[in-house]
User: Fold these one by one.
Assistant:
Number 1:
Amino acid sequence: MKNIGFMQGRLSDVVDGVIQEFPWKSWEDEFHIASEIDIHIMEWTLDQEDLYLNPLLTNEGHEKISHLCELYSFKIPSLTGDCFMQFPFWKAEGPEKTSLVSDFVAIVNACGKLGIGIIVIPLVDNGSLENSKQESMLINTLNEYDALLKKLNVKIAFESDFAPQKLAEFINLLDSESFGINYDIGNSAALGFIPDEEFSHYGDRIINVHVKDRPLGRTTVPLGEGDSDFESVFKNLSKHNYKGNYILQTARDRAGRHSHVLKRYLKQTTNWIQRYGS
């Protein structure tokens, strides 16, 4: 399947037990490793620490990224901004908020230059919206930059822990041309959400999908070992004519066989799409 990709870092060793972070030592190697298992789509990752040293935000980095994409026939259509979850500008005030919003604008501009069309903003964990003030601050700030997003052809996809109806109410406050939803299969299962209900509320606003599996109330496990209802999810995606990408944000292999397990997850996901899709 040409629209299945992987989350950057999933082909690198875990550092200090962190399941997801930018792979500083091996980010260039992942292009070659992924191409060997016939994956040519990557979702970039950004952390707040050393943000402006990340290749995405340096001129030299842009040249390297463009070269590697051309060399290995790669596309980077999306980015997960863990930096926003680590330091959410919608929870900050004064100079801190100004600085964090400047970071957001820098990331949008960098994505525009590299042709990255979707920025995933995680409204989960530390980034979770806790009250109406935070929700209003987020919406008002993003609306200020709607023109920039349209100019650069960049969209924001929210990954949220809101219940289906609340998430629908939230996303309907924002322009569908610039804002959509990142549907995380594992997170929804861990929260006990029912796919039919989720898709009935906001299925037409989903613009990116994270493929992973989680048991109810627990963390990521190998695909098929959690409570994710993959049959229902992929049937609903097909029903809503989803044409976006499927990003493997899957469980790490403790033995370090990164390409081996990612190849297996690629096969599983391909089978689900073909079996349950239209």
Number 2:
Amino acid sequence: MEDITRRNFLLATSMTLGSSLISLARLQQQPSSLPVRLNSSGITVLMADRSQRSDSLKEFRLGSIKRFWIENWSRPEEYFQWTVESPEAGPYDISLLIAGGPQIEVEIAGPQISSAALLSRHGWDKVNASTALILPKGLSKITARLRRNNEEPLKTLESKRKPNDWFDRRGSGLHLKSLELTPAAAKSNIEKRVKALHSSAEWLAEAKYGLMFQWGDWGYPSHGDRKPWPQMINDFNVDAFAKMVEETGAGYCIWSATWRGSRFPAPIKAIDRIVPGHTTKRDLIGDLIHAFGKRNIKLLLYYHPGHEDKTWWAQNWVSIDRQERFTDNYCSLMNEVGERYGKGLSGWLIDDAMVLNYPAPFERMTKAMKAGYPERIVSYNSWILPRVTEFQDFSFGEGFDAINHWPTDRKGVFIDGPQKGQQAQFMDILDGPDWGIWKPETIIQPPRFTDEQIADLVKNAAVQRKALSFNLLMYEDGSVSPQSLERMRTVRKIIRGK
């Protein structure tokens, strides 16, 4: 849970604002008329911020790498347009990553025929066009517009906006992230590859709940200055920590390998090759796996790409238009970590996927994260937006607010909504004021939920087979709030019966 997408977004919004299955658009810092070559065997992403478009459409971006969406789309004369180059003639299925309201209709026009996408719900969704778009071989243009029969649905959308909803807070009109084009002839093959890389995450539903800790080289004690790297890692009492997690009844633990810093608490050679001094001799991850294994608790790692660490980022990032170096380094790192820990590492949660990596070679990245243990589960954070890829196993679930929005099947897999097809998992802050302690003299706040509130929350989630991950703040010495522990004991009694 990264700075912009989680904690400071309210403040920010008050300001002026290698896989063969993925063909990345030739991105430019400004809207481009350069043709995007379509992938005849995989998905091509047409980014809204790289379209030729009406001047009235506004881009929401924070900094050089935080690309969110294009907004203020509300009139039929407004348009998005891309020039594409198809290697052969044929039909392409179209999906839109879009936010709007029910009964709003978008027309997607090609050189020969048009298709339409009808929105069915409020907010963000992944919406399929009704028919495939027929494209000729060679160059052609694709245009997206609102149809002229949207006057009443748009009025309804504006009348139902809620000031506490991220989409509604951004103002009037629709938001568009991208169009995804899939060759109809390749669809079956893509689905087979997704299935082959899929791992069951039903054990999350069986576990029912777990704990999360964003603790690392950014941390501080309750008073005074923090220890130099890597002393805090060397001094950490793993057995005491694992015993504490066990006492809460948690079935799994999400541990932040990185967050506000990119130093990794284990001897990973791939990291040392990129930036020396960002690892440790002590294998804290391995120690956690050993301690949790004795207690039948699974370990998952949260990973942040590290753009707040200038030294690390300079060796990984070229630009949002050129992510090859980042992807190569990322996959090398993930391969080594996966092979090192094997089945001891049960899963990955990757932050910043929708605003940084997308579009990306997610198949390649997911394969790297499953190295050493094919059943390891993977999730990419899409925040409030729809799923970034089908090459993942469970929902990142940032926040408990949407817990009742979308139905699940008997296994706990979403059967509808923006995260359709993903095992349901939600995470949120139990105490705060943040996801981790990264400032001196931080005072941990009381739990956000009373005993009654947390009881209702976990009972409801258990019925729906939606796993809940409670994030607790932890000081440098491994101590947490006694009040937060007591809330988790309440959860244990409700779910475990003891």
Number 3:
Amino acid sequence: MNHSRPQDKKGAALPNRDRPIYLDSHATTPLDSRVLEAMSIYNNIEYGNPHSSHHFGESASNAVENARRQVAGLVGAIDSEIIFTSGATEANNLAILGLRELIDRGKNHIITASTEHKCVLASVAEMQRLGFRVDILNIKNNGLIDIDNMRDKISAETALVSIMFVNNEIGVIQPIREIGELCREHGAIFHTDAAQAIGKLQIEVDELSIDMLSISGHKINGPKGVGALFVRNEIKGKLRPIIFGGNQEAGLRSGTLPVPLCVGLGAACFVGQERMDQDSEVIGQQRDRFFEIVSSRVPAIQLNGSMQSRLYNNLNLCFPGVDSQNLLACIYTRVSASTGSACTTGMIEPSHVLSAIGLTNEQISSSLRFGFGRDLSLDDIEFAADVIASEAERLMSAA
């Protein structure tokens, strides 16, 4: 395969870079320097078990509780409503499977959407195996749920509605406030996977009528291996653990808490709140500039999902007639992007998200996801756009 250096629109060779430009921030993000600094002392100096009753344990416990306050502050929650987990996948599993006993209380119905993360769909499928009735909402071509369709499905028997805040592939923001209000009207618990929204959008759980919300550390420039579940205090009694043992985290998640990771998540939430407006403006402008360059050079490209209801750091583009794996191979040393969710790596079927919004298998196999993050310059973005456009043009002309 030809990996020759691309040329810009004037025919000049683009300069080499020491490392590829990273445009895969939906998969993971680099650790913020302030987060790393906050974590460092708890790896080798204040190394106590936070559940131990001595000086070292108390120091570790205080650090964990400060982190809990920081996480709660980012979403407008009470400290005691934050349950630390190993990540958003575990948080989603706990939020859904933890409600398994509601079927004995006359609540036997669950609503979710076809574009949810695989761990949500798999957890809902397990609840269905346990006897729950499940409705999976279809998605409109712009990636949004049909709120009227949800209104037709929800009832007094609905135990749970689980709808992702921001989609991890197409970046579409769902009408969370409307969903929350509808759940309130029918007495249903509302859970949202907010891994892609946290630290990027202002979230107040009370204003949005959210009962449970899942968080992932490594999506917000925090460490991998840690996340959290916001659980409204009023519904804690309805939730049952899925991990048993030492009765930590209000009895909902047993196991010794990883203090450095909890501290890192708290610090990432603090930094995310502080940088939210700046990130939105700068990264949004960079995303728009990238799209402007690529669409002007490759006018045949198609945007997957709504642009109006899209998070500022996302683009999902279809390059008609171009195999996305070939395009990724051509840009490998210069730009890092992806065909979709890193959580489904190795799976051979087409993206269930792109399929749900009506794309054909051919269109799906021609689509790439670009996730824009911190610490990139406009020059980086323009370089990446030129690389993508040049290689896409070459592959199209060779077809």
